[in-house]
Amino acid sequence: MNSTKTPSVLIIYTGGTIGMVQNPATGALQPFDFAHILKQVPELKSFGYRLDTITFNPIVDSSNASPAFWVKLVKIIKEKYNEYDGFVILHGTDTMAYSASALSFMLRNQSKPVIFTGSQLPIGQLRTDGKENLITAIEIAAASQNNQALVPEVCIFFENQLFRGNRTTKYNAEHFDAFQSDNYPRLAKAGINIKYNYSVIHYPTHQSVLQIYTKLDANVAVLKIFPGITKNIVEAILNTKNLKALVLETFGSGNAPTNTWFVYLLKKATKKGIIILNVTQCSAGSVEMGLYETSVPLLEAGVISGYDSTTEAAITKLMFLLGNKTSRQEIVDCLNQSISGEITV
């Protein structure tokens, strides 16, 4: 820990289960005032950190997360960036992986931690996981050595594990360990001590001024392939008005039906300029187009490999690139590169 000054963390409460307490009169759950966070979680006083809070007004259910919501978040971080050592974003779990992925692209030259966390049970309930998640997320956001943040990335911390945000997916709606990162190792594990996996954390090679990108283009769709998918369904999605990019969720290592009509529709779409990005439906593993015969026609149709990207990262990366790159070739080149550690190329 940097001993020359008191660590400071800004807590941004956007909404979600973690910020709920029970109304003693009605028994209903309601958001509490995060300005009084030390009252709800008095353990935080032991850190001796400077903790400040910002609460979205109105708070946002994570099901209503949107590009405008992400823009609001990055603008807050940019405005407060020089005032704090790290940032903790309290967020509903349902779309947390989308938001963490989006911010990993929208924040450039990042040298401070931005840690998303939340809970499966409200912070006011006896068995809540919220307190532990919040306490450890704050500790990670404040952690530094030799004036260097230990985790200068956009991350998700949940149930004692720290993951790179754009490698993470929510996979469990019931258990406390709600998130997983199958294609990238966890960045830290919290036990008696927090053990950091330094070799997989990205550290900036030089200090630069934080830049934010606020242009996102949401003209993106997702098509999940399934046995028996019909021509009408595929045609309807590819003919969506203003569609610019499609995330194609395929079988296994990037395989899809070889029906003539299916390949023809994909080829027709790519010729119109629609970008089609191939990601696997599997939780773990990577797209390797050409490995099997059933993926060769996708290559020939102009479909681009999404490698080992999550669907959440693929969608938000496309929104980011469509909003900030001027040519199709530029976008394709960036899709074949790791911008923020989101794929293994």
Structure description:
This protein is α/β, with parallel strands linked by helices. The protein folds into two domains: 8-212, 3-Layer(aba) Sandwich (Rossmann fold), CATH 3.40.50; 220-335, 3-Layer(aba) Sandwich (Rossmann fold), CATH 3.40.50.40. It is 26% helix and 21% strand. It is built from nine helices and 20 strands. The chain has helices at 37-40, 67-80, 96-106, 130-142, 231-238, 260-271, 296-300, 311-324, 328-335, and strands spanning 8-13, 20-22, 29-31, 50-55, 86-90, 107-108, 114-117, 144-145, 148-149, 154-158, 161-164, 169-170, 179-180, 188-190, 194-196, 211-212, 220-224, 245-250, 275-280, 304-305. The strands form six sheets. An eight-stranded mixed β-sheet has the order 4-1-5-7-10-11-14-15, with helices on both faces. The radius of gyration is 21 Å and the shape is globular. 42% of the residues are buried. The model has no long low-confidence stretch (mean pLDDT 92).
> Strands of the largest sheet, in order across it?
4-1-5-7-10-11-14-15
Shape: globular
Q: What order do the SSEs take from the amino end to the carboxyl end, as H and E?
A: EEEHEHEHEEHEEEEEEEEEEHEHEHEHH
Per DSSP E runs of 2 or more residues, the count of β-strands stands at 20
> On the 0-100 scale, what is the average pLDDT?
92
- Reading off the top of the CATH hierarchy, the class of the largest domain is best stated as Alpha Beta
Provide the gyration radius in Å.
21 Å
Instruction: Kindly report the oligomeric state of this protein.
Output: single chain
Reported CATH architecture of the largest domain: 3-Layer(aba) Sandwich
